[in-house]
Design brief:
Elements lengths: L5 E8 L5 H14 L3 E5 L2 H6 L10 H28 L4 E6 L11 H11 L3 H7 L3 E5 L22 H13 L7 E4 L5 H16 L12 E8 L11 E11 L7 E9 L2 E13 L2 E9 L1 H8 L9 E10 L2 E9 L10 E7 L3 H7 L5 E5 L8 H4 L18 E3 L5 E3 L51 H4 L23 H9 L1
Parallel strand pairs: 1-3, 1-4, 2-3, 4-5
Antiparallel strand pairs: 6-13, 6-14, 7-8, 7-11, 8-9, 9-10, 11-12, 12-13, 15-16
Helix pairs in contact: 1-12
InterPro entries: CYTH-like_dom_sf (IPR033469), NadR/Ttd14_AAA_dom (IPR038727), P-loop_NTPase (IPR027417), TRPL-trafficking_regulator (IPR053227)
Pfam family, one: AAA_28
Protein name: NadR/Ttd14 AAA domain-containing protein
Length: 492
């Protein structure tokens, strides 16, 4: 039997670098593999949220505060480290900043004085205490358009100060044997994937191609009967509950996720912001049970609560998630099973590594009929204007035929709840993109279908390369396709 592992990881970085989202994604990724994950809270945030302001402290008080902060941090970490050692499973301990971060905020002389008076040294605090350090570079350095202080109660730094703090935070860890810097050379999703892949590489965990920049999410419809458990490779089952929340801003979307095993739950709040320069921005926050219950009061009554059993397993060096929809649910969800994975493989190669013990009916990647947002709608699709239409550069149909979209148009995945009213010109909601117009008619009403249902191809108004988009009903309303980013954000 393989020896149990306890891996101590520090996730640090400058302001608005992606630490919060990265921590959430790492947690979900390793929990799906059966690991126990502990998240050590950021000690500075805990103390500063109690009313302490650096501007109110004199030099001596500031020094004592930093010293006590470090003592508190070490004790909190030790508590989690001991829990990790006694845990029967492999355990990942994610520290939101670590001991050396404190050295970025005081002079070298005062830091050395603090070390000497407490019997500490840099080798023990930096090199021996943690297995790996990951520095998430601030958006203020290379992704300035995404830098914001709005979502953080203890953050008020301007761009220049944020850059300075980012450098100091990185310099504090130079010398650790496993120190990795994740910059902003790619989009945010790729940044998060690089971070997760970096941890997996150090641990010797083979993730295949699911975290590569070229990876895409693919989704398949699975039909009953589901094989008995013994036919699956080793798996982890989770109960998952999703609720969409009301939003005062029509350009944003909010949802809650409750996920757990054997009565133990984790809670995530996700906000999807409007697309900026081609990137979907998601802010994910870990919640307490009390916060979750309070926010649940804002549930959007136009959506059903989605209940799933999520089965995660690895086969053929490929990581899969099988979502099994459960009652209570809309009739459209009864018996529904969707298999998802991330891969850079071509369709032919991917087909060879799909689980052979499952009955896979067809690929439904990009088909809005299988997005969680649409599946959860309370109203029937042919009587609501909330149905979400999404187009990609290539659409995958039921018969696996690729239909190219007009080359003269720039296609944007509309996944942020933005309603675009089409007139003679396209609304400039997002400066970087134009929007491909899609026929809003769904489930037959305007397509003359005798059975009252329209296929994905029929609902999407697609013209040839030399034609302009046609608007049959005068406008086009597009809402977020939840499933398009759900696995990456929520299930990695």
């Amino acid at each position: 039997m393989d020896q149990k592992r306890v891996y101590k990881l520090v996730l640090t970085g400058g302001p608005c670098g992606g630490k919060t989202t990265g921590q959430t994604r790492l947690c979900t990724f390793f929990e799906n593999m059966g690991w126990k994950v502990f998240r050590v809270p950021e000690t500075a945030t805990v103390l500063l949220s109690g009313g302490i302001k650096f501007s109110d402290l004199n030099a001596e008080e500031a020094f004592k505060f930093q010293e006590n902060l470090l003592r508190t941090m070490i004790q909190i970490e030790n508590t989690f480290f001991q829990l990790g050692e006694s845990c029967s499973r492999n355990c990942l301990i994610i520290c939101d900043r670590g001991a050396m971060d404190a050295s970025a905020f005081i002079s070298k002389d005062k830091w050395e004085l603090m070390m000497a008076s407490n019997g500490w040294n840099n080798v023990e605090l930096r090199d021996n205490r943690y297995n790996q350090i990951i520095h998430m570079v601030s958006a203020a350095n290379g992704a300035e358009e995404f830098y914001s202080t709005e979502e953080h109660a203890c953050r008020s730094e301007g761009v220049e100060l944020a850059r300075e703090l980012d450098y100091k935070a990185a310099a504090a860890w130079v010398g650790h044997p496993y120190f990795d810097v994740i910059d902003n050379s790619q989009d945010f999703e790729s940044k998060i994937c690089r971070m997760i892949e970096c941890v997996c590489q150090k641990l010797g965990i083979d993730t295949g191609d699911r975290l590569r920049a070229s990876s895409r999410k693919v989704k398949f419809l699975v039909t009953a009967p589901l094989p008995v458990d013994s036919e699956f490779p080793p798996f982890q089952d989770f109960d998952v509950v999703h609720n969409y929340l009301q939003s005062n801003n029509p350009k944003m979307q909010a949802r809650l996720r409750k996920r757990g095993q054997k009565g133990h739950w984790s809670y995530i709040h996700t906000i999807r912001r409007p697309k900026i320069c081609g990137q979907v921005i998601e802010v994910k926050t870990q919640l307490t049970h009390r916060d979750y219950l309070n926010m649940l009061a804002q549930r959007d009554d136009s959506h059903f609560t989605i209940f799933k059993r999520r089965r995660c397993f690895l086969i053929n060096n490929q990581y899969f998630q099988l979502d099994i929809y459960r009652e209570p649910a809309h009739p459209r969800c009864r018996g529904l099973m969707l298999l998802e994975t991330y891969t850079a493989l071509t369709a032919d190669k991917l087909k060879n590594i799909l689980p052979q013990f499952l009955i896979i009916e067809k690929e439904v990647t990009g088909n809005p009929d299988y997005s969680m947002f649409n599946l959860s709608l309370l109203e029937e699709w042919n009587s609501t204007n909330k149905y979400c239409h999404n187009l990609h550069g290539i659409m995958q149909l039921a018969d696996n035929q690729d239909i190219p979209i007009s080359k003269s148009l720039t296609t944007m995945i509309q996944s942020n709840g933005i309603d675009c009213k089409a007139g003679s010109t396209l609304s400039p909601i997002i400066n970087c993109y134009q929007q491909t117009i899609v026929n809003k008619s769904v489930n037959g009403a305007r397509n003359g279908l005798t059975n009252g249902k329209a296929t994905f191809a029929e609902r999407c108004n697609i013209n040839g390369d030399d034609q302009e988009p046609e608007i049959r009903n005068g406008d086009s309303t597009m809402r977020p396709d939840e499933s398009l980013r759900e696995l990456k954000v929520d299930k990695l």
